[in-house]
Design goal:
- There is one protein chain.
- This protein is α+β, with helices and mostly antiparallel strands and 298 residues long.
- Helix content is 45%, strand content 19%.
- The chain has 12 helices and 10 strands.
- The strands form 2 sheets. Strands 1-2-9-4-7-10 form a 6-stranded antiparallel sheet. A 4-stranded antiparallel sheet has the order 3-8-5-6.
- The N and C termini lie far apart (53 Å).
- Mean pLDDT is 91; it is low at 1-16.
């Protein structure tokens, strides 16, 4: 079934693929002890499970997993029955299939990242083509640095700290090394850099596709198509993310929300609030309160 789904996807046919979170949510035994939504399909869930059997079938999105407590009674059946332990890390890339048997209680955290979001964040963090992301499948590995970050994300989910989760996720993406790759299509690095610089310099204005196309010496159609190939998301979504990033920085200061909305190029304060909440799962006012209440500011 997984192979059939991949053939359909490669043929350009939309397929309704369940996420790892969907599969666990359908279990009568698995229990979500803590959940934190981060916007745009990103999220963290701390799970507890026992005496269960779970199949992830060509799942949608990437998942990073850390066993917090227990795990020696958790086996991956399609990988020679290897078993976990407290501190074990797993990585499930987008589209992965696996089968698991749980015989003893354990507690674990999952970080969920849609493919387009991870690739776009990766491209922005490493100033490279999104196709240079190489996320290997990992089953039960000792990865202390990644385990530490996932443990911090579990703490953020338990405390409801969106600010901590955002900072830790940025560090996690920064630790993903770009792979060497021969890339065809897309935009050249110097064109991407030119576009990024122009966008950042004009975030307070209405940015038109035609202006960016002229800057890249391409038709609007070709710029739109090739930008998505290189950055992992559509150009208009990329610009919105840049506006959100700038707003996050300004929210640590005293500027009124309406002024921040204008500075970041949003049509109105209500437009700013809607876009910010979609991207972060909290409002600008909520983000500002989190910044104010953070230990650093205290």
């Amino acid at each position: 079934m997984a192979l059939d789904r991949f053939r359909l996807l490669r043929a350009g046919v939309e397929v309704d693929m369940a996420s790892v979170h969907d599969s666990l949510s359908r279990s009568p035994v698995a229990h979500a002890a803590a959940t934190l939504e981060m916007g745009r399909g990103r999220g963290i869930t701390v799970w507890e499970n026992r005496n269960d059997r779970i199949t992830y079938d060509a799942t949608r999105g990437h998942v990073f997993s850390l066993y917090l407590e227990g795990g020696t009674g958790t086996r991956r059946l399609d990988a020679k029955g290897v078993s976990g332990w407290p501190g074990a890390v797993c990585i499930f890339p987008d589209g992965q299939t696996s089968e698991w048997e749980i015989t003893t209680p354990f507690r674990f955290v999952h970080l969920y990242l849609p493919d387009d979001r991870l690739r776009a964040d990766f491209a922005r963090t490493h100033y490279c083509d999104a196709r240079r992301l190489d996320l290997p499948e990992v089953t039960f590995a000792e990865m202390p640095a990644l385990a530490g970050l996932l443990g911090a994300l579990a703490g953020a989910a338990s405390s409801g700290s969106i600010l901590l989760a955002d900072a830790v996720l940025a560090e996690l993406v920064g630790g993903l090394a770009p792979r060497p790759a021969i890339l065809r299509g897309g935009l050249a690095p110097h064109i991407l850099s030119r576009l990024d610089e122009w966008i950042d310099a004009h975030l307070d204005e209405a940015i038109r596709l035609s202006d960016l196309a002229a800057l890249a010496d391409l038709s609007p159609f070709h710029l739109h198509r090739m930008f998505r190939v290189s950055r992992g998301m559509a150009l208009h979504a990329w610009i919105t993310e840049r506006r959100i990033d700038r707003a996050k920085g300004l929210l640590s200061g005293p500027a009124p929300l309406v002024q921040i909305a204008d500075t970041c190029g949003f049509a109105s304060q209500s437009h700013f609030t809607r876009a910010f909440k979609a991207a972060t799962s909290t409002t600008p006012a909520g983000w500002r309160r989190a910044v104010k209440d953070s230990p650093r500011n205290s």
